[in-house]
Automatic annotation (TrEMBL):
It is a multi-pass membrane protein. The lineage of its organism: Bacteria, Pseudomonadati, Pseudomonadota, Betaproteobacteria, Burkholderiales. It comes from Orrella daihaiensis. InterPro entries: CPA3_Na-H_Antiporter_D, ND/Mrp_TM. Residues 130-423 form the NADH:quinone oxidoreductase/Mrp antiporter transmembrane domain. This is Monovalent cation/H+ antiporter subunit D family protein. Pfam families: Proton_antipo_M. The chain crosses the membrane at residues 6-26, 33-53, 73-99, 111-130, 136-153, 165-187, 207-225, 245-268, 280-297, 306-324, 336-356, 376-396, 408-429, 466-486. The keyword Metal-binding does not apply.
Amino acid sequence: MSDVTLILSALAIPLVGALVIALTGANRNLRDSLMVASAVLVFLTVLSILPSVNAGGRPGVVLFEIMPGLPLAFAVEPLGMIFGLVASGLWVVTSLYGIGYMRGAHEKNQTRFFACFSIAIFAALGVAFADNMFTLFIFYEVLSLSTYPLVAHKGNEEAKRGARIYLGLLLGTSIGLMLPAMLVTWFMAGTLDFVPGGILQDNVSRGIGAVLLILYMFGIGKAALMPFHRWLPSAMVAPTPVSALLHAVAVVKAGVFTVLKVSVYLFGLDYLQSLWSSDLIMWVAAFTLLSASIVALQKTNLKARLAYSTVSQLSYIVLGAMLANELAILGGGLHIVMHAFGKITLFFCAGAIYVAAHKSEIPQMDGLGRKMPITFFAFLLGALSVIGAPPLGGFWSKWNLMLGAVEAHHAIMIVVLLISTLLNVAYLIPPVIRAFLLAPPKEDAHHDHHDEHDSTSLRRFGLAEAPLFCLVPLVFTALGTFVLFFEWVPIRALLQTIFTGAAS
């Protein structure tokens, strides 16, 4: 099968999957089986493109031209390959998890939920494989629209309000800021193509370029730079599989992926270093990174704490892009992968706790680790990876970001990263300590949460873990954070082909 066929197939399968899910909704076992099958097929299809990209190729296809020089086109380069593999690979485990969660929590409208989920993955892959800013923008907007019903899934007033904030901020920033920047880029550079080394340096003055950078960085609302971050905690009203989709698989990763694409392929690192606004955005990222961590410390709801953690962690990648050197870009690309595995593990655990124990507040989780040791040990691994502790994958992305700060002679940013790491410890480790070391509340001491969906195979050992469809994915992603510490070199080699050609 040719690379062109593979690219088109990777985009088509989720759309066909969404239609199949909608048509088979009356038989939930058939529907869910077909959903998982389509997820696996998409991942295998995306994986099949990897050898060509590793060899230095940039397989692509032009569908049609909107006007001369402005095509709807796809091409797979290293950053897109990484994002495509993360999105499609984690879609498989999120699909399995979603089955366990949606059934265990007795959620309604599951067919609509899973159909929209598939469309969101289609949009995420469109963003990953976009060959120009116009194509990326189209799929970026489809991603926002397709996830709106997921955020509003519960249908109550709180969900509707959260969904309105979610969609309003994402569409407002992209149409109000990013689209004008694209129009100016098109007018002055004559193209929106992603080109190694950038397209702006020889076509736009540094003054205009500095303004364009501000418009792009704040216009990419999915990167959640303050003050355009409120959509992310507002979306926490959605079911936990949606939170996993937002924070690890698709939405926020589409945002920071776009930040890296714009930095590397529209501005170019040399031109980016020459713009005064790159320092401004760097300081905004540093402020977001620290202040969101401080807010996370004050949240007692576990999902809310994790949401602000994500706001903070995304700014690591924005900061890396603004440092504008190869090591920092490498660190940012690695962080897309490492944070995805760490954060999806944390959200999977939060959902498992809700399904099995009906608890969402951290003080309610005292002693719960004795009944759910697998879940809370997985939470610990995910937390340590997000913190950046070895031997877990998050260490390598933070290490390379720090090396990038050293190379850029921004010692203050090393201090920012170190302070943020300490804050990560302060808000991620206490839930585990409370779960394992504190006594359960009196009302829970003699009450064992149990329902027909519990994993009865574990109950015989005195455990009250979530259903296996919830438990297996979180164990898989938690182990993934460990494996990535030892298997990060192929990811680094692929990212380095941005600058050097074929992977060694």
